[in-house]
Amino acid sequence: MTTLFDRTQLGELILPNRLVMAPMTRARASAGGLANGAMATYYAQRATAGLIVSEGVQPSLQGQSNPGTPGLHTDEQVTAWREVTGAVHANGGRIFAQLMHAGRVGHPEVAGLTPVAPSAVRLDAQLYTGPKGLLPAPVPRALSTAEVRDEVEVFANAARRAVQAGFNGIELHGAHGYFIQQFLSSNVNQRTDAYGGSVAGRIRFAVEVAEATAAAIGPERVGLRLSPGAGIWGVQEEDVLALYTALLRELAPLGLAYVHLGLTTDEDNLMSLRRTWPGTLIINPAHPQDTQPASLAVGEAWLRRGADLISYGRAFIANPDLVERLRQGLPLAEAEQDAYYQGDRRGYLTYSSYQH
Question: Where is the NADH:flavin oxidoreductase/NADH oxidase N-terminal domain (predicted)?
């Protein structure tokens, strides 16, 4: 029986186990969206994971969501990330960069730019902007058809920069109500051109971004995260199963490294999507709104249901040696939730390996 601690292959990579460190916003980047030494230490401490997927990295300044998040759209950012990827590789690890474009979940107080989206549909929420605190989300600017195509190339350029920065690959953030999922939605996407309307139109942007990044760096270096039916940041999707079945069928011929799904729809839908997707499937066995980390037992249950890799997020925050703790049945430390996004060492570099 396959376990979380068995070796496996992902593209050209040999993973020593099937545990993936899920992407998590930590807001510790330096000014200018630069990765730094603290981030290098943080990721290197967790290099025993079969694969690390980084926090969300904006592919352009336009795509920035929160203060303190890193980017991959300048030469300086590429250079800064090399310290992080070098530290992970020196510790024997493998790391993908998650490319995350905020779309309408952005604010001019953060990026200095009006956010863009498939349509000018305002997010009914307050967004954290830094010194000015929480402010209402603005009305985003709807992209023209030509500008949508330009945004496809933004992702491809960021993927190239990720490889230059030493990442083993990239994960496209098509989940949790951000830019790619905004195109998939039936309420945020009100377009009447080729990128809206029908299911075929609403999946077009996601498919084109996957095609462009695969062409830029090789499909074996490209993963895609999805959250079918999650309803996060006000995104709604009609007929979730039909939408995501169509999307996975279009993506299947590309030979991507993986698709990464959360438990955001019912189990029958997830099992149907598993049957549709012929490639590697990562399952994150915790709903994004859960407050507690998923257990080893839940992860292994999803291996038996057909997942190839299991991703854990919150459990990795307080347990840099999570793989060994799970392997040996050791107790897990609890993370300080109020320090998730504090921007200093507390709750970031203050967790240690298990002390026997």
Answer: 4-332
